[in-house]
Amino acid sequence: MNEETYDVIVSGAGPAGTTAAIYTARSGLSTLLLDKARIGGALGMAHQVANYPGLGFKEPLSGAGLLELMHAHAESFGVVFRPFQVYGFELSTEPFRVITATQVYQAKALVIAAGARSRSNWIPGERELVGHGVAYCATCDGPFFADKDVAVVGNSEEAVTEALVLAGYVSHIFLINPTSRFLAEDGEAAAVTSNEKIEVLFNSTIQSIEGDGAVTHVQVAGPQGAQRAVPVQGVFLYLAGNKPATDFLDGQLTLDQEGYIVTGPELDTSVPGVYAAGDVRGNRLRQVVIATADGAMAAMAIDRRLRKRAKLISQR
Ligand SMILES: Cc1cc2nc3c(=O)[nH]c(=O)nc-3n(C[C@H](O)[C@H](O)[C@H](O)COP(=O)(O)OP(=O)(O)OC[C@H]3O[C@@H](n4cnc5c(N)ncnc54)[C@H](O)[C@@H]3O)c2cc1C
Fold it and tell me: Does residue 70 have a pLDDT over 90?
């Protein structure tokens, strides 16, 4: 099979990967950007992005719209975009090899920017009402729910932290916790239970999200299965099951306990020449600005690495 060769291959064309590609291409490095979907990932799900500096504050801008701008920007600098899923890598020798269904590619450096996949199991009503009351990020969407009543669903540290962020915007929060405690630091759990805006519904599970075009209420099963309709205009979901997209690494890079890629200060991974950027490395704050900053940092580290190597070779 003919193997195309690039200086850099970026896996994942979300904001992290696309930014990395823009920077490497602009540095004169031939760059291939691979993604299984032209518009996908976390940003592809965002109904409205209003906190990316310079964009989305005058005219509403969807995540898909922002991605289209980013991809057009990358291609204008000569980035080659291919809509292929990456199935695996060979990282034991250089150049590295990247495997897709129809083609194997080679590169001197790689950026893994495959994001953190979302759950595959949807709550009834969730899919239809994403962007119409169903949300996943308090920092992103909290301001759209000013003075409204919302539900927060989950018992993780993320659910607790996000509820506290939301309390700064909304009128009242029903925190639907499927268990009798929180999987969070004691201080944060106490901050939630003592917050006068937050009403915790322990041992309760969300059954469905209801509304015709916009969320009006959620159906909740309480202890002993008692059913209850809770009136809310928004639902923020923090359910177990979000997973970094790192299965395809097949144990070749060091991951943390939750499967996120472990990175050094230059976003370098356990294999020199392979970098990780964005949600795939488990950033505490998952935002477009963080992902783009990661992409830029990884790209500049690659630029330094490849220039240094080229200089060493020319001195031989
Ligand atoms: C509903 C929602 C709303 C949000 N709203 C905002 C907001 O308003 N403001 C904000 O700043 N942040 C927001 N975020 C967070 C933000 O979208 C993410 O932090 C950001 O997109 C992370 O960028 P990324 O490039 O790391 O990952 P992603 O955007 O998830 O991109 C990863 C890419 O990798 C691709 N990929 C995965 N596996 C493979 C593979 N095997 N082969 C090829 N390609 C692959 C995916 O298709 C995807 O395109 C929101 C998130 C969600 C879910």
Answer: yes
